[in-house]
Every structure is written in structure tokens, then in C-alpha cells.
């Protein structure tokens, strides 16, 4: 048996570009033409020496010729097989093409850049698919009431783009005005919407802009949980059709560094998508209330996806299009620091708020 790394006709190489990768190549110095010429010269020499020899000598010469011919034929056969096996990458396990591809990349950094570009392209395509799937279920909520200058907190913003003020009771002789807007999403096909409590707080009227409807729909508050800053409101369908909904994912299974997607209406710019990563979990924040008291929120998700006034109440999605959080706060003095209530908290709270309704489950 020929051991490929010891045979002189086989050249053993190690490709420096792929450390640890062993390739065997056939590299015989004897060509078929050289062997044929040597064979003819050997026969001619034997003919000259044995022209006047005995019959025994002729038989010996014939035997020598036969052995030589067999040896040369065997050498040609083995050489041909070794050459073909090298061409077919039988000894390299199909790795020669891999090495060639690596060698064709002169700059290793370029190869890394190609991998990153492909990964980013794939992520971009995933984002677009998630947006197209989730967007019809995301709504804009208008809070109408009495205008005042109070603001709940710099964490929630005081812009007209987001509800956060405490409205007063509406005088009978005064028309309600738009105090701010927030976001929400359908979690039930019968028109139940989840949003932040501060988005609907003290509203005299709530108007919800739903994709596919020409006019905003009036909404009623079903239940509120001020401690968790969650609220459920409901609109009635005008055409008898079910509303598109979003399902909940498991925020406990989300990892720091995972891609996340926020959809909402920042500063009244409807159906805006932003992307980022999950920056932290179990984050506590403290909000100063209008009366000077403080309210602490715990177990929040932190993300660097852009969340601005008006995003409150909108969904924070994973790349599967599942809701893993409700966007609830942004630090007005920072960039890339937003917070969301995790789905692990939301689902239990929604079940409680839905008790007594015709639809008591998610």
C-alpha cells in the first residue's frame, strides 16, 4: 500500500491560508513520454547485447523485457490514477476548491466584510417582513381633553407628540382639543387594543386611527393598571370584519444583543419603524409624578431602538414579529436609551384587565 505522505511521487503541501488543512497532490517528475523513451532505449540495448546469444539468453532477455514492460505499464497506470485522483480532489476531501476560493481573496478583511454584508442584508429583509406583517395591527391613539402645561415626567416627554399630561374635566361649553398622541396595537380581533395608561390618562375622548379606515374610530377604556402603566381600550368595527392582531412572545427568552423592532407614531409621524438591539433586561427606572411623588417601574427592557414621544404604547417586536414589550418611556436627556414593559409582565396584567369582558383571554 502506498502511504501518500511518504511516496516520492506524491507532494505533500500545507496551505498557509487555511491552517490545519492538509492537501495531497500528485507531482511525479516522470512523464509518460520519458517513460516510453526509456522503454525503447532499454529494448534496443538488450537487442544489441543479445544478438549473438544462445537460446537461453534470448529467453532471459524476453523475460527481462516482459518484466520491464510490466513495470512501465504499472508506473503509467499508477501515475494516471494519482493524477486523476488529484484532479477530482479524492485525497483532499473536496477541500482544494475551498483553498482556491480563500486564496482568491487577497485581503482577509474583504472576506469578513462580505460575510457581514450578507448577514446585514438578511436582517434587513427580516425587518421588512416583520413590518409588513405587524404594521396593520398598530394604531395611533389621540387623547382629547383640556389643554394644560403639566407634564408627567421627562422620561415620558412633554411634547404634543405624546400624551403624558393630566387632563382636567372638560367644561360643557368647551370643545375638546388634541392633547397628544400615542400608539397601541390590537391583541384581540374584536377590537381590544393594548397601550400605555399614560397615553389615555384623563381623556375626555379617545380617537383611534386604524389602518384601512378613512376616519378615526372612537374608543372606550376597558381597564387600566396605573402601577404598570398599561391600559386596554376597545373600538367597534364598522364593517363586521375582524381586526388584525399581534401575538405575544416570551421576553424571558430574549437575549441581550438580539435585534428588536419598534413600530409607532413618534411626534405624530404615523407607522414609523425603528430597529436596534436589546440593550439590557430587568432595568428599574423612577418617574416623578405631577404631585411630586415618585413611581418606580421594575423589570423593564432597555433598547437602543429609537423611541420618541408618540411611540408610547406601541409594540417592541422580535425578529419573528412577536410582541416582547410595550414601549413606554424614553429618557429625554439621553440618546439610544428607551424602555419597554416586558411581555412576561404584560400577559398576566392583560388577563386581569380583561376579566369581566366577553373576551377574557388573549
Automatic annotation (TrEMBL):
The chain crosses the membrane at residues 67-85. It comes from the Bacteria. Residues 150-175 are annotated as: Disordered. One of its GO terms (molecular function) is serine-type endopeptidase activity. One of its GO terms (biological process) is proteolysis. InterPro entries: Chloro_Bact_Ser_Proteases, Peptidase_S1_PA, Peptidase_S1C. SUPFAM superfamilies: Trypsin-like serine proteases. Residues 157-169 have a biased composition (Low complexity). Keywords: Hydrolase, Membrane, Protease, Serine protease, Transmembrane, Transmembrane helix. This is Trypsin-like serine protease. It comes from Paenibacillus rhizovicinus.
